[in-house]
């Protein structure tokens, strides 16, 4: 006889062990329900695996009441004794290791960081949302298809959400499921106020009894995006600590910030990897599930009452995804409202949800308790087959099949009829939820949090000011950059290798002077070769951080001004070391003009030119949305400056347009300045047979058209061009959304 046909005991007395503590009796009836203290779902006698009798014969008969003792606080003092893992003579390190293990384990159901404010509510009333599909296509892709971005496309609007209504409160976790294009992403975009190009046709969103506004959303709602955007070279603790300094009110002491970071690490079970680098696809660090928890922790630091997550299990294996949803379930129990979108979850993940919203083509097919979903569809004539995952089955049932016109019409009619049937069944209900039992029963439970400190939460919170933001951001950038030792070594080796190659190419002449042509070529290469490498490095680095910048600016962690100054000044240490490694060997190996003053003038001009090229790359990276476009623009600009630099062709022979470009070419001013340092006021001797001809340096400069301005003016010209690129960089940060390619 199949296992699902075995009649379940109406009353089953079981023993559940909670983190190695004392055993408590559990009264279990009928179908399993979510409980704050139990780790076993379904009949405990069947083991720790979850058993869902999806057949129509299995009906819920009651509620599972589990009384299980859990560890209170970080670690109960007597826990090691009761687990038998600690002896009186055990060393302190063993005790600490045991505490760390239990403290970060998924079997620990303790709540370390609950929401301490008033309970929150989220209500969507008769919401209809229309998407403008053309506006979601990036302008550069429209140009690639020979379409003008500013032209309107009236036929590109699609209905994203149709007459959606639901209401949820603190202590509940609502999962929005459905096939691709069902409206999950649109719903989250509308609630968080980040809908790109869409328009609300009717309805309204209410948060805590107030109409939703951008200020209210920023105050109450935390949004965890689908993709993790974190600095890879910082540890988990450092990542959270820097965000805590930026996000928590300025009246928080350092001890309070550290305590908040510790609480979040404890709540998300990250203590074992707290001192491990976050990492990414190139830098080895924490696992994918742990990295996703860090992203949640970044939003959890300011203790929001409403947590919205966009496909948090995307890219994770089933075991890691299950543990992550268990973490979200714990967060909901901590007096929080959790709303997440998710693809077809496996059965044990589905069982963790309090509420489920099944959508297709923007309409509601089912909204109610996860445990009642099978019963509802069975009642309307669509029972779930045995041994099938209800999430998979009912998402497939309501999906639109576009493989043929006939199938599309048939599936749309099925979805339309199911949507109309559900709307009729919940008519007159205030929360728009379908339940199989009395309306007084609440779905989901939460831990009652202590009364909030009115002085702390009712007073307006002042975040750190611009100077504090700048100090925090520059420390974060320098910490992240100088932890990237392989990249620093590669850049240092690159500068040293180029310096030695150029230096040894001109080495060995001794007292014999280089020819005029060779000297001019050397000086032009010194100023022109290194900036080319700097452009690609800076643009690549900026685009790797672009998504993080966009999210943090959108979340209000800081403004464009502090980030701008932190980015500019944060480049100085690496820039200075790079120029020292590159500039010093060349000067002495090539036997350029001796003396401290010519060397310092030479070094300063090279420093300014490479810095100008660096800020030009920053501006190109912020101005254009993709790495390829930014690198193309930067290289095109650099090549224009290179060709009009005065070495390839004399400045006097340039026609109007190249002559204008040469006026703003920092390579032209670098070449002219280096030539003036080498030849101005210094005679050059040229041998013609047995005759030595003395040629004044100024005559050489005049013949090449490089003596039109004094040396100090050249420094001001380079500084002015750098300031122009700096201003362009700031304006790009200030007025252009720094979306990455994955956010378009």
Task: Describe the model.
- With 744 residues, this protein is of the alpha/beta class.
- A 6-stranded mixed β-sheet has the order 9-10-11-6-12-13, sandwiched between helices. Strands 5-4-7-8 form a 4-stranded antiparallel β-sheet, with helices on one face.
- Strand 7 and strand 8 form a beta hairpin.
- Helix 15 runs parallel beside helix 19.
- It is elongated.
- The two termini are 54 Å apart.
- The relative contact order is 0.08.
- The N terminus is likely disordered.
The class by helix and strand makeup works out as: alpha/beta
Number of helices: 26
Globally, the shape reads elongated
Q: Which stretches are low in confidence, meaning pLDDT under 50 for 5 or more residues running?
A: 1-93, 95-104, 438-443, 445-459
In short:
The chain is of the alpha/beta class. Helices cover 46% and strands 12% of the residues. The longest helix is centred in the C-terminal third of the chain and has 29 residues, at 516-544.
